[in-house]
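LAB NOTEBOOK - FOLDING QUEUE
OPERATOR: T.R.
BATCH SIZE: 2
PURPOSE: Compare the predicted structure-token outputs for two unrelated chains run back to back under identical settings.
PRIORITY: normal
REVIEWER: second-year student, initials M.K.

ITEM 1
FIELD SEQUENCE / FIELD STRUCTURE:
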Amino acid sequence: MLGTSMVIGDGVLTPCISVLSAVGGIKEATDAMTEDMIVWISIAILICLFMAQRFGTDKVGYSFAPIICVWFTLIGGIGVYNFFKFDPTVIKAINPKYIVDYFQRSKKEAWVSLGGVVLAITGTEALFADVGHFTVRSIQISMCTVTYPALILAYTGQASFLRKNETLVSDTFFKSIPGSLYWPMFVVAVAAAIIASQAMISGTFSIIQQSLSLGCFPRVKIVHTSAKYEGQVYIPEVNYLLMLACIGVTFGFRTTGKIGNAYGIAVVFVMTLTSSLVVLVMIMIWKTNILFIIAYVLVIGSVEFVYLSSVLYKFDQGGYLPLAFAAVLMTVMYVWNNVYRKKYYFELDHKISLERLKEIAANTNLCRVPGLAMFYSELVHGIPPIFEHYVENVPALHSVLVFVSIKSLPISKVAAEERFLFRRAEPKELNVFRCIVRYGYTDIRNEQDSFEWTLVERLKEFIKENIWLSHVLVTDGKTAKRGEEPSNGDDQINRRATQVEEDCHETVEREISIVDKACQAGIVHLIGESEVIASKEAGIGKRILINYAYNFLKKNLRQSEKVFEIPHRRMLKVGMTYEL
């Protein structure tokens, strides 16, 4: 949760610092441009950027690669130009002796400067977002052959420029651009800043989508903006919150210096947490040799610890911002996940047994009405207690009842033929079914095909398969299932097999006709809306967590029918209060 929260915080800071630093370059062209004007121009660009998120990046994404290629070509070329023009002797900086001398000479100042050095590698912590659109190999190739060489050339050229212009440290980038290339470079820089912001915003949407799939984030609407690329999603609520946060940070901090302090802490925290999780993967999944794990922790961990200690030095100079973001987001995620699990376990402990279901069905006061009812519940195993509450208050049961649980699995895709899992409740005369609908976190729900139509068709297939598997021919102590040839070819066995097959056909037709008639009578969607309150024996902390924090989130966030896109005219909510 901490890592996810820090990435979301990174998604707020990246657009701010990228756009503000790019727009700030216009000061080199005119002295009339004030700091307030730069801030307002940056805010206007950010608003346009977030307002365009609903259209997705699929339609304009084809222009991203050429712009970024031009960007890397320009900064690399300008770096080479400055290197030869000003001071080629900076190549001696590759000798590690100079960094040792620097730390011996500057001591504390050198350690503090590492907080600025870390900004040179920002962006690499967001590579996970690109994995949703590209292969790992393509990212490795582009990083090693284009991005890294261009950055090394750019920073080497700027170092050479600073050797002759030591007073221009704060505006090195735009000051080092040759005059004839200033405006083209300014336009490309703004475009690249927007693209970098877009990548981080998309990464934020992606990680929230996966957190939602794992039950670690409150319900929000996921909109897939591309039919071709499954990883491109848009979350309206999160988008507007990010926009407001970016506007607030840009207007409040106003300069890239303070935002940079916050940005550095967010980036290094994400990198450190990623490395920590890699250690777990090495131990639990890769089964790596313990010596390699220790070496990894000592080398990578020590480097990241030094950088982390450096950026934390500027905690009071804006560095507190990402930690504040993380604290708020972690609180929201913890409250939601904690109560969500408590509620699920409550339903699991109080689920209706098969014996109790038979008693309910045998109740003479319960009447069956024509129609098919889909009862939505979070419970995977068994029938939720809210069903009994419904029957007690509305003593009527539809002719066909399907308990539906929609679950997101921690895998990328679920095969279409494995998506619907059915099970029939006994006795069969009740026509009560359990259905688990499984989605991966990159699966797209086909909006062209009705969900209820697909579920009904799969239900019919299940009924057919279930009837054929349940009919066996027992003769002379042997069994012959459908499709098997009798072993002795006896006519009597053949006649019995034929009779059983005819009975199967009749049973299948009768069962399918029941489902068809129920669908023709009408399909009703029953939503189990359970309210949760803390039990009387609960302590003050648990009361605050459940009665106030969780219920506040639930009331102000998207409801179930909006997530499932259930038609309102055929929807009925069934409420019940759980004491946790």
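ITEM 2
FIELD SEQUENCE / FIELD STRUCTURE:
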Amino acid sequence: MPPRTRGGYTSTAPRRRPTGSERRRRVQLREVEPEHPRHDRDETEEVLEGTPGGPIDRCILRSFHKHVAAKIWLGEDRAPLKLVNHGAKLQLWELDVERSRIYETVQRSGLAPLISCSHRVPSRPMLSAFCERWQPETTTFHLPFGEMTITLDDVASILHIPITGSMISFSQPLQVDDANALLVELLGTTDVKASRETEQCRSPSVRLQWLRENFSTITDVSSDDDIDFATRAFLLHLVGCTLFVDKSATSVGVVYLELFRDLSMVGSYAWGAACLAFMYRQLTTATRFEVRQLGGYLTLLQAWIYEHFPEMFSSPDMAYIESRPRALRWRPHVIPDSLQSLRERLDRLQSSDVCWEPYVDHRAEHPFPDIAWFSGCIKCGLVVEPYHPERVLRQFGHIQTIPPRPFAPPRPDRSILLDQYWERWTDHVLIDQSRGRRCHYSGESVAEYMAWYDRISHRIVQPPHLRSGFTTDARSSLPSHTASTSDSRNARALRLLRHVISGGRQQSGDYFWGALNEAHSILAGSDETSASHNTPSPAPASHSTPSPATRPFFCPPTFVYPPPASVDPPPASVDPPPASVAPPAPVAGPTASTTVYVRSKRKKKT
């Protein structure tokens, strides 16, 4: 009996092994509408049981058992992702003075900042480490202290492209024949060339190189139709290298060419919202353990990391001015740390390590957009993703509360309803009650937030028994706070200084100096050092200063502390020690006697 195939018919012909191009195309077709976990369905499977390392309650992260972080916790590792980036290809098609008419149209479209924004060197370990913390159900990064995500405000500040306007919608996937017709109509190519190109791509797409070869030579002296064709080709090349980078690594979908039919209407689309939805989907796909590539506009993701974690990853450009996109503020560089090292660094992150509001200096040139408070779905064609600002209130300067349960995105075939929902975005922003109160200090959250977050999230990615420098005793327990001694000192000092700053001008000078003295003692490590040797240093006779271990955290104003004299820098010239003081011991290493011995030995040989 011949074998029965998946199509329902029988065949005796030998099965042909698919080629690499066919496998890539199948992956692309599957990624058009990946399976999204829905939260309103009745399931008989045990989806609410906890997983090793968290979450304890899987009412939020229902598909976590398929997540790469779950595999890493069980001992299966994944190498850094292969990044699909076209930052270098943008330099191969420059709009010089001979193509000023094309550049003027691109500038009116609102996409001109993308020409100079792209980073050419994305960091594989850094982006891979953050991708492991992305959770598809919440569309946020789950870090040890809470959730963070890329918001519409981030997109507008980093890229300076429009985030308001019409949604980018497609009623159905584009077929190859329709793609050929679009190429002939909007780019002026022949039907033979269009069919040959889509056949070579094996999909309704064109190669970026094909666009450059056929349209980069058109200048201002060409006919009006040719200039329009070249302008559409350049815009298609631009979004294919930036906003909508897919995993083909060489081509761009012809479906976006429809958006450039009327060149005067290109600036009416919400390009930033579409870019964000596309980036969300690429991060969601890359959270599966078997995925090895990451697409999307990686400059947006990398610049977002630089902005919110400047002391950890960034390298600023000192020549930057605030009138330019924030993506140009940073010098992209390759992080020398390994992926495992970055996992451990992220596991040790605290709320005080984050720059929650990085665009304060940028507001004069680029005010805060109210549409960033929109709560609903954003889309890019057939890609629909939820957008939850209520889960990241600290990024807007508000106290983080326990957010409501995330909603599952609707089906893409309801595009008309989604477009109408987006067009009336002013009716769907968070109300003042949902936004809550402003933070007294950066990263503030309600008291019960961390207990709730620890129950529903996977805060630590690297298993304790696989960390570097862990002893046998430390491997047996899951550390909720894995900060080192220096990190603990910094957190204590910052906590003290925050309360001093929030007290304003009404607190007494004695309290102010006492708090500074205590913060200096904490940072200098004098309290830990004296405690470790059990020899507490006595206070001066003229001041009855309690030790840091016994002194209350909030010192009453009646306590009088001397000004921290040790904070002042040492003088430029220091007198030499008296003759009675013995000179310091020589530093270990190659001494003068060793050098003389080597030289005398060489003389003996000669």
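REVIEWER COMMENT (ITEM 2): The CA atoms of residues 210 and 592 lie 68 Å apart.
FOLLOW-UP: none requested
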